[in-house]
């Protein structure tokens, strides 16, 4: 403490400060010096606590792809009639390809039915493909749907388009139609939409980078809108390095 007092005397020797101001400045500097000294002793600063994901925890019903055992998960809430989702999809595909052995990817439904009247049924169709043929076919169907719409420069599928695209990737038409005729797919899409609202989704696409912990899934980053691959790469590489 004596050394600190001498330091303050030298520091303020050329200044004429009132007693209250001098006391205040001295208190601030002492507090700062204590914090800095503590940081030097520990050799590091504490990482900020990340917010817990408020959406539904990832489980087997999500039909995740990639390294499903990874603690790092990318979750996208999407609408297949949304032009920004179509623009964003090549980035999502590249993330899946580049980080296939490092992360898990989950596609969730968030149809904006007030402005995209066909998005709800298209989400049902995606669920039915996954229900009939599994996780990889589900994502292949999403790829096929966005590829078709982009090639036609039209976000609306023609009549019968959902079934045609399903058959294009080898889905059994009878099983697909049976699923579409039931109520389960609609219930799943509605639940996914409500889940997105709880998670803080306000529009599409909305992409969450999550890390699984003992407390739950922490939000490493929430990305709204279509962003380039390099933007996500910086986030993912940093998260994987921790």
Topology readout:
Layout: H1 2-11, H2 19-42, E1 65-66, E2 72-78, H3 83-98, E3 104-109, H4 119-133, H5 135-152, H6 161-168, H7 173-181, H8 184-199, E4 206-212, E5 217-224, H9 229-241
Parallel strand pairs: 2-3
Antiparallel strand pairs: 1-3, 2-4, 4-5
What does this structure look like?
With 242 residues, the chain is α+β, with helices and mostly antiparallel strands. The chain has two domains: 2-42; 60-241, Glutaredoxin, CATH 3.40.30.10. Helices cover 53% and strands 12% of the residues. It has helices at 2-11, 19-42, 83-98, 119-133, 135-152, 161-168, 173-181, 184-199, 229-241, and strands spanning 65-66, 72-78, 104-109, 206-212, 217-224. The protein has a five-stranded mixed sheet. Helix 4 (119-133) runs antiparallel to helix 5 (135-152), helix 4 (119-133) packs across helix 7 (173-181) and helix 4 (119-133) packs across helix 8. The chain is globular, with a radius of gyration of 26 Å.
């Amino acid at each position: 403490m004596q050394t600190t007092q001498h330091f303050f005397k030298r520091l303020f020797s050329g200044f004429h400060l009132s007693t209250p101001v001098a006391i205040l400045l001295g208190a601030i500097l002492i507090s700062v010096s204590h914090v800095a000294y503590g940081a030097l002793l520990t050799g590091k600063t504490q990482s900020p606590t990340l917010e817990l994901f408020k959406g539904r925890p990832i489980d087997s019903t999500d039909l995740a792809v990639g390294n499903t055992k990874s603690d790092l998960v990318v979750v996208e809430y999407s609408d297949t009639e949304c032009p920004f989702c179509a623009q964003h999809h090549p980035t999502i595909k590249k993330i899946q390809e580049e980080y296939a052995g490092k992360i898990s990817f989950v596609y969730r439904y968030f149809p904006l039915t007030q402005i995209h009247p066909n998005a709800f049924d298209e989400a049902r169709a995606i669920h039915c493909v996954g229900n009939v043929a599994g996780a990889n076919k589900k994502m292949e169907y999403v790829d096929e749907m966005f590829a078709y719409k982009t090639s036609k420069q039209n976000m609306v599928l023609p009549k019968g388009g959902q079934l045609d695209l399903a058959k294009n990737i080898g889905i059994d038409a009878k099983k697909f139609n049976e699923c579409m005729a039931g109520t389960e797919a609609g219930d799943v899409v509605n639940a996914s939409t409500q889940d997105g609202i709880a998670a803080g989704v306000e529009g599409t696409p909305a992409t969450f980078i999550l890390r699984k912990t003992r407390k739950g899934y922490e939000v490493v980053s929430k990305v709204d809108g279509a962003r380039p691959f390099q933007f996500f790469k910086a986030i993912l590489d940093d998260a994987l390095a921790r």
